[in-house]
Structure formats: C-alpha cells, structure tokens
Write a structure and sequence with these properties.
This protein is 48% helix and 13% strand. It is of the alpha/beta class and 286 residues long. The N and C termini lie far apart (48 Å). One of its GO terms (biological process) is organic acid catabolic process. Belongs to the HIBADH-related family. It comes from Solirubrobacter ginsenosidimutans.
Length: 286
C-alpha cells in the first residue's frame, strides 16, 4: 500500500491498530496526547498540516468530544483534501457523530470495533460501519480490512456507534447479572470457580462468564485492558439514545445506574472486570 493514513489516538487499542496498518504497508502520520507514543511510528505529528496528504484519517479516542476537538479544534479536517475520508473508530455518541458529519467538510464514517486489545493486536476486530456515502466506505475499506476480519455494513452515519453502545450495554448487563449470581451462589455455599465453570457449559454462559469472570475476576487478575469508565460511558450512550428514540428500556436504565455507581467508587483507570468491587464485599465476590 502507498496510501497515507492518519491515525489519532495511540492508547491501548489505538497503538496495536496503528502497528497493524504499518505492517500492512500503509504510510502513517500519527497523533496522540502523549507525543512519546508516536516515536515507534516515526514521531508524533507536530501540527495538523502533517495530515494534509492523508487519504484516510482514523480516530481512536475516548469520546466524541475529543474526536471533534482533534478534527475541528486542532484543525486536521481543515487541511484534508475533499476526497479524504475520516473514520471514527472511537465509541462515540451517534447523535454527536451525525452533527460532526454535517460540518466536517469531508466524508465521515463511524466504524467502532469489538474484540478488545487481544483482537486489536491480531488485526481480527469486528468493525461496525455506519455511513451515508458508499464511495467513502469503499475508499476506507482497505484500511478497515487491515484492522479487522469482520467488517459489517450496519446502516447510515451513526448506526455503527449506536450498535457499539448497544453491544456494550449487553456485555455490561451480563457482567452485572453474573456478579449478582456469584453473590447469591456464595450465600448458598457455591464456590465461585465451580459456579462459573458450570455456567460456562450451560445456557447462562456469555462472553462475561467465559472470559471476564473465568480469566480475570475469579483468579483476581483484573487485566482485560478495557477500563470500567469506558464501558460505563458506552452504557450511558445506549441509555441516552434509547431515551431520544422514546424507547422504554427499564433494564438498560438499571444497568446504567449500576455502572455509574461502580465508576463513582472505583479508582480512575480501573479495569472493567473490577466493577463488582463497589457492589459486593470482597468476601462475597472474589
């Protein structure tokens, strides 16, 4: 590949994703809040003008406000050629994504991901693509295919971010329900490891039981690489879009409250697998 790709956000997910783009042969221009992270890619972009020749610019940032600031505030969008495509792979609010698309000046695609750090490292992410511009999607597709092995075209601009929020709501709900089951089970003499092992061969299994609990909570590792604050943010986005759509979602509201409580009491940057700690005493859940 000879295309020049901009990549903004070299955090836990962004850095391995940028590495995969470099390995696929793309030339990169990178930007991060910590300039030292850009050293392995030839240095951090010192000004927005460094992105002027980019065919595609990928953002992988904590929220839509930071995405907007990087593109409009710092000025990346202003230097891009009209044919360039911006691909926001962050977990953003779809309402904000639509508003950004209306003023950006170049094509915008929302393409959030699922799979976490392990699949970011192997380039096997699931990618949910929302866009109103099929030509833009086609131009960005080689970049997306270097980052994931499953690229889903899910709907208009904002649909990808809506789907990501809903997916993470389901994950957060499964996590919270499993924490409740462990606490109740231990009250009846059930060992957490035994409970999780049985559930994982039964109909109650989920990604949370098979991976988060079996690999992190029960053994006390707490190192999934996905912050509790980010998952809580995605659940809050799901609750917000449900309200905006006028959809009655009482389970979602309860899960949203539960995760808001968790991050209010956990230390900053806590792994999402630690969310049960404010809910239950240590002797009740590992």
């Amino acid at each position: 590949m000879t295309a020049l790709v901009g990549f903004v956000g070299l955090g836990n997910m962004g850095r391995p994703m940028a590495r995969n783009l470099a390995a696929a042969g793309f030339a990169l221009v990178v930007r991060d809040a910590d300039p030292a992270r850009g050293e392995e890619f030839g240095g951090d972009a010192g000004s927005p003008e460094a992105f002027a020749g980019c065919d595609v610019v990928v953002t992988m940032l904590p929220n839509d406000g930071i995405v907007r600031d990087a593109l409009l505030g710092w000025g990346i969008a202003a230097v891009l050629d009209p044919s360039a495509v911006v691909v926001d792979m962050s977990s953003s609010n779809p309402t904000a994504t639509r508003a950004l698309g209306a003023v950006l000046g170049v094509a915008l695609i929302d393409a959030p991901v699922s799979g976490g750090v392990p699949r970011a490292e192997t380039g096997t992410l699931s990618i949910m693509v929302g866009s109103d511009d099929e030509d833009a999607v086609a131009r960005a597709l080689p970049v997306l295919e270097a980052l994931g092995d499953r690229v889903f075209r899910v709907g208009p601009l904002g649909a990808g971010h809506a789907l990501k929020a809903l997916n993470n709501y389901l994950a957060a709900a499964a996590y919270a329900a499993t924490a409740e089951a462990l606490a109740i089970g231990q009250a009846y003499g059930l060992d957490p490891e035994t409970l999780i092992s049985v559930v994982n061969t039964s109909t109650g299994r989920s990604f949370s039981t098979e991976h988060v609990y079996a690999e992190h909570v029960v053994p006390g590792r707490y190192a999934t690489g996905f912050a509790a604050g980010l998952l809580a943010k995605d659940v809050a986005i799901a609750a917000d879009i449900a309200r905006s759509a006028g959809i009655d979602a009482p389970a979602l509201e309860l899960v949203n409250e539960r995760w808001a409580q968790a991050i209010a009491e956990l230390p900053p940057g806590a792994d999402h697998s630690e969310a049960h700690k404010p809910w239950y005493a240590r002797e009740t859940v590992p």
